[in-house]
Amino acid sequence: MTNVVKSTTCYECDANCLFDVTIDPSGRAIKVEGLPNCPRGQLQLERQYHPDRLLYPLKRIGAKGSGEFERISWEEALDTITAALQTAKAQHGAPAVGFFAGYTKEARPQLQRLAHAFGSPNYLTESGCCFSATMVAEKLTYGYKLKTTSTVESPKTQCVLVWSTNASGSIPPFENHHLASRKKGRKMIVVDPRRTETAEIADIHLQIRPGTDGALALGFHHLIFANGWQDQVFLDEWANGLDAFRDYIKAFPPARVAAICGISEADLRAAVELFATTKPAQIAMSPTSTVQHSNGFQNHRAMILLSAATGNIDREGGNRFFNDKVLPKPIELFDVCKNELPPRIGDEIFPIWTKYWPAAQSMLMPDCILEGKPQPLKALLAMGINTAMWANSKRMERALGELEFFAVSDFFHNPATLQADIVLPAATSLERTALIAYPGCAYQGEVKYRHQALPPRGEAKPDGQIFLELGVKLGMAAQFWHGNLAASWEEMGEGLPPDIRKEAWENPAGVTVYSPVIDELVDLGFLDADRQWRINGFRTATGKIEFDSVELKAHGYDGLPTYREPMESPLSTPELLAEYPLVLTSGGRQKFFTHSQQHNIPAMLAYDPYPRVQIHPDDATTRGIADGDSVEIRSRRGAVTFRAAVTDIMKPGVVHCFHGWNESNINELTDDTQLDPISGFPPFKSLLCEVSRL
């Protein structure tokens, strides 16, 4: 017998890169090839064969949080979960049962289907604090999602405004990403509290105080309109509420904005002129960082409106609309949720967000469990959940411990699984099938079907398989393909044209698919394949770009992208400065870790072994802190221990903590009470703290 090489797709992020895995005659994977610039992908076998991996169903036998479990059979585990869900439904109603999806994302259609078939509208995901707010802000403002983090470079872009993202740590292919190096003829402005690798190569770096992005964006607008740099012809035809917006931005002159943000007025003026007069210009942003503030939704709107003001919207070299491509058939039963089930968690408080996002708002789960507000939550079925995802994480940990029943699937134990009644072993991406529709870029995407490369270790099962088997146990066998996971993927595949479906199943590299809007543009004689608004306008409430949103105003919000100081900051809470004089930001991405994942892989920890807080030398010196010292970071929510990384890449007065460390979880210090009023997102990235040497 000889080794076998199989081509499959990676799932260490959602790019689903193709790679080869070599399998020895015993059936063990021994080598990964084809992911040269991604340590997560290269080292995924370390997780596959990790000695601490969960391999068998477990039942809690000790107190919640004790870590005392015993092995049980799958039959007992599924029967226990089924009985508990039915009991909760009978006693409290189906909506009091939550269904949560963290990582991985591939079994979400099956879990959401289970939630809605069970009668619960409360399917919740990690998108309650990740990505969705940017999408909602963009659709509300433009009627379309924007492409702001493309891996495909436009050769026509003359200036790129990189706002709070760092490609070499966050966007595959990392150091080879087009934003990670200087490009001939392309100017670059970077906005970031840290002097990142991207900021190092920028023409101008605006090192702002965290949370002041909205003020900076409005300051950009002020100078653009004051100098006549706007595309007035375009705005006259396509802007709604422009007069009110122009009146509002008068309050953001350069001197005031520079003072709010903590930057040089000269740098601000130079950056605005460079961006506004070097066309086409593009804004490159994280899908997450700009909205993880107490005013993040409106801040993000002010930022993305820069593309409209300068006439760079949906143009080659600017910011393109993000279009749907060929998509699989929906199996989630979300139409049942909308039309037949009671309101979702968050409908009561964040109606704009829930209108545009097909899930309940997961950031409210601690309130639901502990206080019964806005809805009671008594039982929970989850996959890939970690309390580290929630602001004020210890409160979420306590909430999970107070559920009447809690079951979870995962690869390893974490603070959430230790609160569970039943813990189920999840199969890895090498051990499970999946139909993958990768959104790709503005017009181009991919459809792939991943075949199983390895048999599951121990008794691990794919998350999707678990949910189908529970559907069968709950008396809905026909709705859940009688427990056949492959059949669920095949039904999703019915939404694909037959030729694409066939190739997706047969070709590991998948199929490239395109948006039909390309043909529509060409048919109408628009051979440049951009500026879709020439066909359909903007798919907003007014058919125009919403500088002053009628939809927001109808729900009682400001229609303008108003700026508000972070709810906890040197300006809004000066009474806290004596005890907490430093601004705390967190969550800068690293290519070595996906949130809390990979932190238990020794080979990965060799790259970055400790939870680090980055602090400026001046701030460190006044506190007697040296590089490498153990330090305590305190906020009003608690205290955690980190290692000091003394570095002048930080803005003085600001510290940054890397996230995802279960033993040093920075989100134990973040605020779960001052959620963004439109999206419900927590302010992970702009709070107050103090750092002391231990």
Automatic annotation (TrEMBL):
GO terms for molecular function: acetylene hydratase activity; iron-sulfur cluster binding; metal ion binding; molybdopterin cofactor binding; oxidoreductase activity. The keyword Iron-sulfur applies. Coiled coil: none annotated. Residues 587-686 form the Molybdopterin dinucleotide-binding domain. It comes from the Bacteria. Residues 53-470 form the Molybdopterin oxidoreductase domain. Belongs to the prokaryotic molybdopterin-containing oxidoreductase family. PANTHER family: OXIDOREDUCTASE YYAE-RELATED (PTHR43742:SF6), TRIMETHYLAMINE-N-OXIDE REDUCTASE (PTHR43742). This is Molybdopterin-dependent oxidoreductase. It comes from Thiothrix fructosivorans.
